[in-house]
Specification:
The protein is built from 4 helices and 5 strands, in the order E-H-H-E-E-E-H-E-H. Helix 1 crosses helix 2.
Length: about 140
């Protein structure tokens, strides 16, 4: 088992089967291009690999705002392969993200989660996260 940042196109494409479980609207043919575009804006991908297979993936960025100072934001993209859940892969990846944030002098870790993702909410609460706000949006 290893956890590492995804940097090559090969690695990014390797994440697609797991990421598409969370984001079924994504097209494999455009996935690397989309991730590369987001990377120009600070987006990073980290993955947990078991026996040469990505089983958990998270997309994140480090940012700064007046409310929180420097923080690591998990951009809605934290997913464990549905066939590999309950093996603590999500917990290990989440702990890696916390350590990464601390090592990069972040004071906070934040994420948004769809209101329908009850299992994810239980997981986040078990990781000692608090529900600190509501996120509002509007389609334009």
């Amino acid at each position: 088992m290893s956890i590492q940042l995804g940097e090559s196109d090969f690695q990014i494409l390797k994440f697609f089967p797991v990421m598409s479980q969370l984001r079924p609207h994504l097209e494999q043919a455009k996935f690397v291009e989309q991730v590369r575009y987001q990377m120009k804006e600070g987006y990073q991908l980290v993955f947990l690999e078991v026996e040469q297979q990505a089983v958990a993936v998270a997309g994140f960025r480090i940012s700064t705002c007046l409310a929180l100072g420097k923080f690591l934001y998990i951009i809605d993209d934290l997913v464990v392969d549905e066939l590999k859940r309950s093996h603590s892969y999500g917990k290990q990846l989440f702990q890696w993200l916390i350590e990464y944030a601390i090592n990069h002098e972040c004071k906070h870790l934040s994420l948004d989660s769809g209101v329908q993702r009850f299992a994810a909410h239980r997981f986040y609460l078990m990781q000692r996260m608090s529900i600190t706000s509501h996120h509002f949006g509007i389609e334009l």
